[in-house]
Each structure stands twice: as structure tokens, then as C-alpha cells.
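Hi support team,

I'm opening this ticket because the web form for multi-chain structure prediction keeps timing out on my end. I have pasted the exact lines I submitted so you can reproduce it. The total is 676 residues across two entries, so I didn't expect it to be a heavy job. Is there a limit I'm missing, or should I split the entries? Thanks in advance, R.K.
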Amino acid sequence: MSNQTTPATTGISVHTGHVAPLNQANVDTDQIIPKQFLTSVTKSGYGKHLFHDWRYLDLHEQEPNPDFVLNKPEHQGASILLTRENFGCGSSREHAPWSLDDYGFKVVIATSFADIFYGNCINNSLLPVKLESSEIDTLFEAVAQDPACQVIVDLPQQEVRFNDQVIAFDIAPHHKNNLIKGLDAIGQTLELDSQITAFEEKQPAWKY
Amino acid sequence: MSTTLYDKIFQAHIVDEIGDDALLYIDRHLIHEVTSPQAFDGLVQKGRKVRRPDLTFATMDHSISTRSLAIDACGPANKLQLQTLADNCAANGIELFPVGHQKQGIVHVMGPELGLIKPGMTVVCGDSHTATHGAFGALAFGIGTSQVEHVFATQTLKQSKAKCMKVEVTGPRPLGVTAKDIILAIIGKIGHAGATGCVIEYCGDTIEGLSMEERMTVCNMSIEAGAKAGLIAPDQKTFDYLEGREYAPKGADWDAAVAYWKTLKSDADANFDIVVELAAKDIAPQVTWGTNPGQVIGVNQPIPAPENFSDPIDRDSAVKALKYMDLKAGQKLSDLTVNHVFIGSCTNGRIEDMRAAAEIAKQGKVANHVTAIVVPGSVAVKAQAEAEQLDKVFLEAGFEWRLPGCSMCLGMNDDILGQGDRCASTSNRNFEGRQGRGARTHLVSPAMAAAAALAGHFADTRDFVGND
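Hello R.K., no limit was hit. The queue was backed up. Here is the completed structure from your submission:
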């Protein structure tokens, strides 16, 4: 089994890593990346500010909060974030998946995701995995018992595997395909240029 | 087959069908400085152009000062972001309403007041409160920056069909109960994620009785219930609001448009995936007590006890929220000292909101320990309020009267709260740290916010408006 993201071009295939357990529901995008970091005009450099308010005791990010999961020695280097329902609720800021990705997360496993955040993950090759609440509990327990527990997230097979457990997950076929192939969504749509033009030509002028 | 309003708008915009997805045409694209720069960059990297700059409108709202018209008033990072928007709009032929422009305002206030939003349109913006525009019977939703780039390049978006939830509010609205109270009560009932995966259609005689601005307040917070969008079927009020506005159709075009707009409603026997019903008589002025908008109570209800929540996740969330908000179960809201009041935002920054707040403000003075700011949602709102001398009412009562922008709703400028501050806010999110690290936000209506400013604690607006 691969010990890192299998490079299927630029897409995602099978990822193996260990887990940072964030045992909280309704984690909003203001928590993932607070507003003071949204003034940047680039997509990079957000990882150090990820979960800023929880992760640091001071405004200048000099004093890590020892109680926060990402600061615990046993969860250093985690590449899979495990959390609970309604993850990524709130603002549409794509800075949220940019900051998770920049920190080093490849996969987020949750009971459910807010809609805009979910789409933003797909568009940034960050794999969102939805599992049942009881399955999430099992994974939290496994990580509590062994923080170094290796978890395999297999997108082609749509499985999460750890210890002797195999848990299947659902994902829309087009999302799966785009993630695996790392496709350029805009490029795909531009191939439909003639249909778009035909649609435009049918619209009455008063419409806009 | 019977269809919903959502089905009709969705169907009318399908350019192509791709498996279970549709490629939808986007009629209106609104942009601002925070979520667009990386999208413009993406275009440049791939050598692509904005397909329909004529359907795209830009404003500056999030990162601007409410004390100064200078774009460097909030520091070099904000200035760079604002300048980048101006440069990108100039390079791509997009009309921009910059700071100081008479059409500038919060994107969701500016769009409707110019008549840019019409029934049956698809409307997107890199901003979750795009749902506001559903008040016109437009399918309007927030998108991420990758999608902003997709709309720039193609004027389309790939979309799966959402579920449809009907929220029906019926009966006469009690005195002192505002549109903000209605939407907070709805979110309280269905929960902060209650409409995830859904488009909500609001209906019922209470909703029909709302003004266009009140409908915008309701639709605005659809995202706080987890919904993709909120919709209200257009009616005569919608047409009356639009008629004569700058970007509304004129003459024969107006007649053709209205004829089409009148067809935009759910069929009587249309099937909804979920139906939620509320009686307006059961709604009191609302105040959030927790750290998500679903954690809300009537102004005279005690702060709830975590053990009263049956769902273990709700119970755990309540424990965390009470700790962050420094509250105890059983406390009365009228015992909570408020030291900041914010009146404004895309939820409650329109002229009717200014009037409602002024109606209370003229009855007293802001309490000594309270800092209260009023931030109109646009230059047009500010001008109208000043024509009605509402600014004088606020200033005489001890409120600050600021320049238009998003301001303290999210504090991307210098309108931020400090550790432990407690704020009665007319904005839309009470998340931890939303208005400043360690600050405590309670979401309320403009009237409730003004009442809290005068009383120095939460107060029931019905004690101010009387029963006449």
C-alpha cells in the first residue's frame, strides 16, 4: 500500500495518513480561517493561520494552545481531518479549503458538510468524505486508542480502511471522476461553447 | 407535471445536461474585493477572458473603512485588495462601484436597489448571503472563488438539482415582530443545518404580507439554515419595487418582462421534499444566545439548559456555546449587559431597517457604557436616511452614523470588537470570534438592537412600541 498520495497525474487516488480528531459539530469557516486573513489576493500561505483562534493563545501566533488537537505531539503531520456534522458552515470563502490544503490535509472526514464548502473542496482536490455518525464514532475511538493509527482513504474503491475495518462511502460519480483525474472544470465547460452561445441567442433582451 | 418555482427557474437555465448535473446559465454575476482576486488570476494564468462583463457588476464593501473614503484607511493589505479589484474590473471591462461612488454599497443591498436583480434570474456571487436576492423570485446562491472563475470564463455553472423545502408562515404578524424575528424563528425551528442540500421557498400569507426589504431579510439568512438558496414568488409588490429602477426594463420590454414574471410561481399541487409550518402568532422578538444562528430564543425566554436538548450533539454544542458566551442556563436576557450595538449589514442595512431603529432611538439616549454604530447598507440608503433626518435622530441619541459597508458584521475593517465584548447585532452570524476574537454576538432585529442600546441590556421592543 502506498504511504502517501498516489500520484495519478494531479488528481487524488489512494491516500494513507494519520488523523487529527476535531471532536466538534458545526465548525464554521470563520473558525477554519478568520476574516483578518482574507485580505490576501493569493491562494497560498493560509496554512499557518488555519483554526487561528483555537490554535493560538495570542493574536500573533507565537503561543500555541497546548489543548488544541493540531498542537498535540501525537497529531503532528496528520493529513486526514476527522470531525462531525455540518463542517464548513457559514461563509463561502474558498480560503477555508485553501488553508486546510496548505496546512497539509488531503482528506476531511465528517458526518456532513455545508454545501458551498463541499463544492469548494472538490474544486481544490481536497477530498471530503461523508460517513455515518456511528462510523465516525468508531474512527474517533480508533484514533483515541492509537493516535498513530494509519487510515487509508481509497477514492476509486470508495472505502476508508483502518485496523481491520472497512467502511464504504458515497460520492457523486462526477465529483469522483474530477478528483481522480484532476480535471480542469473550466476547460471542460469551454468545450460546450457553441451550446452556451446558442442559449444566449435565444434570450430576450429585457431579461438582463 | 406540477413543478415548483425552483424547478421552473432551474429548467429555464439549462444549457446542457451532463449525467445527473446540469450546466446552468448565469444571468447576473456580482463580485466584490474579497473572493474575486484569485479568480481573475486564474483567468490570466490560462489566457482566458471574462465572457460577459456586461452581466457582471462589482462593488467594494467588505474591506473598506466606515469612517473614511480613502481605500488605504484600513491598512496596506486592504488597500491592495481594493486596488486589485479596481485594476481587474478595468482590465476586463466590468462596471465597478468603488468607495465614494453614488451606487456603492454592500453587494446585496446595491444589486436590488439598482434593479439589477429580476424575477426568474440566476444570480451568483462569491458570498454566501447571495440568497438575499431570492426575495425577487431569482435563484440566487453563494459560490466559491473557483466557481467565480468558472462563471467569469463561461457564464455558466455545473449544478446538481437541490431538494426543495417549503417554509410556510401564516397568520397576522404580532406587533413588534419583524422579518428578522421571522427568519431567526425559522432557523431556530429547523436548526442551523436544517436545510442543508435544499432550496427553501418561503410562502404563506405572513410572507406575502412582507415588504420587499423585509423579504430580503428573510431570504438573506437562508444560508444560516444551511440552505443553498431562499426563494419568494414574485408578486405585484415585486413589480412595484422594480418599476422605474435604473436597470429594470422599460416600455414594451417592461410589459413583456412582467408577463413572464407572473408565470413564476410553484404550481398549487407542486411536490416539496420537506414542508415546515410556522404560525406568526407564536413568534416573539428573537435573540440568539449561542454561537450559531439556530441557538435562538424569544426575548422573554430564559437561556436554555444543555440537559434539555435531547440530541447529544446539540447538548454538547450548547455547553460549548454557554461557556464562550459566558452565560448560565436560566438567565434572563434583560439581565445581560450589552456594551456594543451594531445596526447594519446585508441582512438589516436597508432604509426600512434604519427607520425601525430610529423609531426606537428617538425615545431615549444610548446608555453610557454602550458604543452603538449605525452603518447604512449603501450610499443610496445613507442619502435617503439623511433626507429623512434619521442621521440626526441617531446622532442626538448618541449613536455613531457611519459610511456604508459590511463593517462589523465580519470586521474585515477596523470595526471589530475586543475580548469579552457583548454586542447586540443586526448581522447574520454569531459564530465564535466573528466580530472579534473572544467577542460575544447576539443576533437581533434593528429595533431590538436600538432598544438594547438605550437600555444597556436586552429589552423587549414591544415595551417601546406600545399597543396603539
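A quick check on our side: The longest strand of chain A covers residues 14-17. Let us know if the file doesn't open in your viewer.
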